[in-house]
Amino acid sequence: NRKGVALLAVVATLKLATMAAAGGKPAVLLLRPVDAPFAAALRDRFRVLDLYAPGQALPALAFVAAAAAVPEPPRATVIWGGVRVDASFLDAAPSLRCVVSTAAGLDHIDLAECARRGVAVANSGEVYSTDVADYAVGLLLDVLRRVSASERYVRRGSWAAQGDYPLGSKLGGKRVGIIGLGNIGSRIAKRLEAFGCIIHYNSRKPKDSVSYKYFPNVHELAAESDVLVVACALNKATRHIVNKDVLEALGKDGVVVNIGRGANIDEAELVIALREGKIAGAGLDVFEHEPKVPAELFSMENVVLSRHVAVLTEESRSDLRAHTIGNLEAFFSGQPLLTPVHADSLAQ
Amino acid sequence: NRKGVALLAVVATLKLATMAAAGGKPAVLLLRPVDAPFAAALRDRFRVLDLYAPGQALPALAFVAAAAAVPEPPRATVIWGGVRVDASFLDAAPSLRCVVSTAAGLDHIDLAECARRGVAVANSGEVYSTDVADYAVGLLLDVLRRVSASERYVRRGSWAAQGDYPLGSKLGGKRVGIIGLGNIGSRIAKRLEAFGCIIHYNSRKPKDSVSYKYFPNVHELAAESDVLVVACALNKATRHIVNKDVLEALGKDGVVVNIGRGANIDEAELVIALREGKIAGAGLDVFEHEPKVPAELFSMENVVLSRHVAVLTEESRSDLRAHTIGNLEAFFSGQPLLTPVHADSLAQ
């Protein structure tokens, strides 16, 4: 078996070497699936060593090692949230000097380890911010006004036989507590102001640029809010930032929206709180163990579930392509990255 | 059979007379179902002749006639969209001098006939405007970002086995053509501006108070818009205002949202346009023959369906109660109605 893997690695190395020799372009290690326009745009500019190329059968880390062994090995890689960039990864690809992530979050990248090895990191910047903010508002409207639940009701053909149906709740006047007032959180706030919501927020420190009420503590934020929106990065300080106590402080009429990361919420406690009516509802685009969704949620009428699509639109896909190539071109031409990420930039 | 109805009418008249004699309060003819708090609030202030009272078995018009025959017959009635106020209705209840409708629309009331007979009419004013505007944005976000479709996908447990899935479309930058820039339409515009949309509109005449681009013609509005939102009243001029030609002008990437009245759109043509990909999608809270929804829509993934709930929240229900009683008290005390409606006020 180990021999088999070794053999495959050799074969792959030769293939990659052939690919690498195909042009005078700089090599890029591509570790995420891309659509045809993205693939074409990359191949126009770079020698692409593609983990997802047809016929490529090596596991990811073996492929990375094989790619690092070609002549003129790749100095840059394009990754997504599914790739963990840690010491083992960087050991396997010592040629890498630049990691361009297409993810909005950075929780899968060991920034300190990258900094130690002189590996620059870029992320997707604000490419997704607008779409994620829009989606957060969509989820909140859906939970409060029962849009999806109403959809199911009509599609079942139940309208004609309609009995009493639980009323929705008005968005205007709601106190919305936003956890993390960065690119995304501040856009959510701006949108919800237009609906007449009162914005509160929690972040590492208060922002001078806004007049919203700041809460240094998420528990107090929850106690003073009708809605909690999770819009922070995932890191040690924000893992399970919404826990059992916070959910209880939010209370039985409270609603949670999560477009951050699943692990920002203690998911097991969230399911209990929803089941026991300790909170009123939830709109969830992310889950702690994606693509696994707690099965109990499937039968709840007061939750809106989606599959980590808050970032996904045709427009953001196209913007992401341009942005990723911009970061790669900046790196290869010795210019500053468009959206560099530093080890201390894990802002909420 | 006619004898039977006549007998029932006599019995009802006696019952109503007994009810009417029960207090010194003014009589109100209640022709819509109300929840317990609404019923109690009405009974506190008025002698309520209730079509939906337990044991009341007369058909609506016979009940109205019976109510008009009691001593001190009701001079005011509370109705909803399900009651058609026309010459026959007014003939049956000659005592009526005030009609308070809890509906937002006025298409079920013959305003000219009411004016001719000196019957004052009040509607729900702006009680619903905010909730309807919110819901319109919710439907639009849902269609563009596929929130309900994503919901169904996750609830079916399909995420883990996920293949390619059609991308959503960004709300920001979309040209949104609003048909009817009244209380509701202008609130929709304000919300969508916060998402970065470009607002166009059509109404009977341009509004001085806004800087949005005005289109005197819905066909041209559709041709210059990515989204059409129907937010006008239903009347002769706006029946089927969105017809086959308008849908074709909107085009294959276009989306329609209807929170007005079903008959503002030629529903048969809408179904064809959706089926044939002549437009991209639709978010529909209202239908031409409610509660009947064209069955073909049930299997479409690019439509979001709801059951005329854009006005419905706990908050609007409570506001409506206070507003309806306010109109009745104004009428009985000889004050101006809170939200009088005149025959010439059928603004879009």
From TrEMBL, chains A, B:
Span of domain D-isomer specific 2-hydroxyacid dehydrogenase catalytic: 76-341
Pfam (any one): 2-Hacid_dh
Keywords assigned: NAD, NADP, Oxidoreductase
Keyword Iron-sulfur: no
One MF annotation (Gene Ontology) recorded for this entry: NAD binding
One GO cellular component term: cytosol
Domain annotation D-isomer specific 2-hydroxyacid dehydrogenase NAD-binding: ranges: 137-310
Family under the similarity heading: Belongs to the D-isomer specific 2-hydroxyacid dehydrogenase family.
Name assigned to this protein: D-isomer specific 2-hydroxyacid dehydrogenase NAD-binding domain-containing protein
